[in-house]
Design brief:
The chain is 33% helix and 17% strand. It has two domains: 55 residues, no CATH class; 123 residues, 3-Layer(aba) Sandwich (Rossmann fold). The strands form two sheets. It has a four-stranded mixed β-sheet with strand order 3-4-6-5. It starts with a helix and ends in a 7-residue tail after the last strand. With 196 residues, the protein is an alpha+beta fold. It has seven helices and six strands; from the N terminus they run αββαβαβααβααβ.
Length: 196
Amino acid sequence: MRSGLYRRWIRLTHRGHEVRCPCCEREYAAFAADRNRPDAICPGCGSHERHRALWLYLQRVLEGIEDMPFDDASFDGVVCSHVLEHVDDDGAAMAELCRVLRPDGWAVVLVPLDLNRTETYEDPEVVTPEQRERAYWQDDHMRLYALDIADRLQEAGFGVETVRMADTLPAGAVRRHGLLPEEVVFRCNQPPLVQP
């Protein structure tokens, strides 16, 4: 409770419009100080400089994720965390991820999931930020995934394993690490080259 009150106090004392956090898209008079530097932490979401830099970089990459500027088989591994829900053509983006992986390469894919759905929800009529927030949980999402994302990843050329981290750990470890029981990791692999 003390932490929650402190966070609210920080947000109130930093009200303004001088800085903008790209992660949560909120504006403040300044970022809050960390132990060893000023202007480090977003009063809203708690992001640090590294999180904001990574998010800005990923936004730039997101603009071209359906056509990445890398040669075929460029990477041994790829982490794609909460990206695919932001792109127009997720099938093309998944195919690009598969294309840039080397044979026997791996990709880890995470997306927001509605586990109450059996099929991913997409509606071309949902276009405004308000509609998207209601339908897809966030105003810059293009769809709301269900577990059938594994089928989409397979259609793009991946072998897919669905892993619920909470199922792989003791209950005490799940609590200690602050994991969501419903969080799912999609472990994708690039099939090895078949030698003639």
